Amino acid sequence: MNRAVDVLVVGAGPAGLALAAGLAAAGAGRVEVLERDEHAGGIPRQCHHGGFGRAGALGDPGALADLLGLGAYGATARLRRQAERGRPDSALGLRGPAYARRAVAAAVAAGAVVRTGVCATGWAGPLSLETTGPAGPERITARVVVLATGARERPRSARLVPGSRPAGVLTTGELQQSVHLYGQSVGRRAVVVGAEPVARHAVRTLRRSGAEVVAMLTGHRRATALPGVPLLTATTVAELRGRGRLSGVAVRHEDGRSGLLACDTVVFTGDWIPDHELARRGGIALDAGTRGPSVDGAFRTATPGVFAVGNALRGVERAATAAAEGAAATGPVLARLAGAPWPEPGARLDVRAPLAWVTPNRIVEPAVRPLLLRSGEPLDHPVVTASQDGRPLWRRRFPGPVSPSRSLRLSPGWTARVDPSGGPVVLSLG
Amino acid sequence: MSLTTAGALPGGTYDVTVVGAGVVGSAVARELARLPLRIALVDAADDVGDGTSKANTAILHTGFDAVPGSLEARLVRDGQRMLAAYAAESGIPVEPLGALLVAWDEEQRAALPGLADKAVRNGYRAARLAPAEEVRAREPELGPGVLGALDVPGESVICPWTTTLAYATQAVRAGVDLHLNCPVTGVAPGDPHTVATGRGVLRTRYLVNAAGLYADRIDRLLGHAEFTVTPRRGQLIVFDELARGLVRHILLPVPGALGKGVLVSPTVYGKVVLGPTAEDLDDKTATGSTAEGIALLREKGRRILPALLDEEVTAVYAGLRAATEHEDYAIRSHPARRYVAVGGIRSTGLTASMAIAAHVVELLAEGGLPTAGARDLEPVRMPNLGEAFPRPYRDAAMIASDPEYGRIVCHCERVTRGEIRDALAGTVPPGSPDGLRRRTRARAGRCQGFHCGAAVRALFEEARR
Ligand SMILES: Cc1cc2nc3c(=O)[nH]c(=O)nc-3n(C[C@H](O)[C@H](O)[C@H](O)COP(=O)(O)OP(=O)(O)OC[C@H]3O[C@@H](n4cnc5c(N)ncnc54)[C@H](O)[C@@H]3O)c2cc1C
């Protein structure tokens, strides 16, 4: 069956829903959101912890700006700091599932059509997607396609961890779904690989399911421990052991010492990669650093009519950030629907190690929102510089430590000095 | 029709018992199922094909490079034809991609004409030398330095999981008793033989030993010591489906002193495999991968297809070839004992399986097994796991008749709830979520269960209740 809509959003997570809500509310015509899962809401559905925005302020599904807009940044950062001081989850505002429900309700109330159990499997034309669902295959053509497909954690195999292939080897995503959505028991003694916020959530989920967490480990030299959980830094997994069921994790410290942690469960956390299958199958240019679609400050990919928002751009940021991107893309999408031309790609943004990625990836016109910059390693008081064709554009010192699991926000003013037709803009340290 | 996974074994005497439900044992049981006899197929594992048969390179070989005149050469050549025909009839995915044996240095180039001659001596006449320009045109992503290739158009890739399952399914439907979780621990030879298993005693007049890596142990239980199995580990890396466009043929290495070497090949599941290593070990359970193995494969792979290394890895696994001290299959018949040992089925057993089965039944007949009254088996039709053939999620008619085929559970591999339901209700249902993966591809994709692991496990456990 062939159908046409005005805007087709792929992915009903925070980013896709926020954008759909904004567009529908602005009268963009038929705005359809496809969700391959049986339920809309995205990753927050499986996150039974707080930190998803201010409770109370979100009662009205019409309060879009508050729920999904930029205002959420400050609030969640503050609430996060409270969390780190040991406040219970309930003090942190909404839990994931409640946040997801409200995001769906907001999009639906605004007039967007959210279809679950429908998977976009490939492209039938530049702005046409092939889909499958219980009602059968379809071809849906849109005036604008938005990729809001989110991210996933790289599993043990992609990380090239050697050893046997027993049961009991999970990612945080599988762990959270098993425990929170299916009430399955996962194991009794667990090791968590990673020590970032996602790893800490994995520890809490494991404990809630009745498992003892034997250790957390990270290859970084520095990380924040959780009370009651031994933390091994500068340590990597050398091998998984066990037949049938995991029996242990062999670990190695960077100084050469090694050991075996007896356990029946191991959770690999936090090594994120955008779900970029559709983007690649559609020939949409990716950015080498983020591995997500390369976008300019208005979320335009290099392919006319195709936008990308949220974690599909670069792996994980908090839900509020993804939603804010969705909301911020509303204007550019409306402009495109009104006939705005697709600009030339502009100047590329590149990073130098240890910086890992930056988004947006291109500067067409001066950016209006902060840029997100991620380091691959922990840094102290980094000085970040931007230059183009050997010409310094900007320089700033960031006070305090920088973690590889949190992005730096670069205020966008300096991008006015970028020459859109010039060479790559290089972001580096020092 | 019966399948048991627990409890005492049925009484009475079987005419033939096959030990080992790998691809070889299952093929033998299927061949025997044509006869009006009472047959048992037993395996220590909770599923069929859980040994070497699940973890190999999955090439349907022409046998062009076998040792001319060997038993292996004959059985691979015949088996290739038999299995290709059987696959077409029963829906086992096979992709006839053709192979290129790529020469990267002068020594390898010099070896190509000899290999072409050897192919002819093995009865394979379609191999020909291809110059460097042609190779480059046919495989544009190959790394620099290609000097030429031997073009072997008859090589194919196949689904090893569906193959074993098809044999076992057909055997069980034709009346074979399949006993899983049933390790053979002792044999008191006699007439009948008394076979001790983890689930009690089984009596059988004829015995076929197709126990793969453990075939030497079974052999010794009967008082023979004709071969010793030395596991030869092969580690492999599977790259994501998004890498599939990088390669069009099976890219074989030119064999050197150190064995067959590392290949790059598409899989029938639409991915790309790099491997295998060849490591002689003494531990028959050492099916783990190692840091050294992975590093070696990556180094070789970078030379063959540099762009491959930038792609995401979906799986790393290892299989153990049942090598012996003999340079050929060690298939030994002991007519007086009513016993056939099928040993040393090394790196070609998947291809040769049907021919091995026919050979084994001939040997049993020579030893007195009555083979009158053979009948044709009811054909099987297996669900398609191949990416190059219509998958249910794309099939409008199938979804219209049953919407469960439109409900995708595993999104990376596009596996629907309908397929999972069917597999769980199959004649030989899976014994674990991994067995379910081998029947459906569920959880075999890039996310390895990040999205669907919990849902698939829930479906598996629900079906067991
Ligand atoms: C890395 C690698 C790559 C390969 N590539 C190819 C290829 O491309 N093409 C090809 O044709 N072949 C290939 N092969 C070879 C092929 O996989 C084997 O030849 C084939 O699987 C042998 O089948 P089998 O039934 O003899 O052994 P297995 O598959 O190992 O089956 C033996 C069975 O016996 C059972 N068993 C053992 N002991 C007992 C006991 N005491 N009681 C009960 N049950 C028992 C085991 O549980 C097992 O299920 C490859 C092999 C490897 C390792």
From TrEMBL, chain A:
Residues 1-20 form the signal peptide. The keyword Signal applies. It comes from the Bacteria. GO terms for molecular function: oxidoreductase activity. The keyword Signal applies. Keywords: Oxidoreductase, Signal. Residues 6-326 form the FAD/NAD(P)-binding domain. InterPro entries: FAD/NAD-bd_sf, FAD/NAD-binding_dom, Metab_Enz_Cyan_OpOx_G3PDH. This is Oxidoreductase. The lineage of its organism: Bacteria, Bacillati, Actinomycetota, Actinomycetes, Kitasatosporales.
TrEMBL record, chain B:
InterPro entries: BFD-like_2Fe2S-bd_dom (IPR007419), BFD-like_2Fe2S-bd_dom_sf (IPR041854), FAD-dep_OxRdtase (IPR006076), FAD/NAD-bd_sf (IPR036188), G3P_Oxidase/Oxidoreductase (IPR052745). Residues 408-462 form the BFD-like [2Fe-2S]-binding domain. It comes from the Bacteria. It holds the Pfam family Fer2_BFD. Residues 15-363 form the FAD dependent oxidoreductase domain. Transmembrane segments: none annotated. This is FAD/NAD(P)-binding oxidoreductase. It comes from Streptomyces subrutilus.
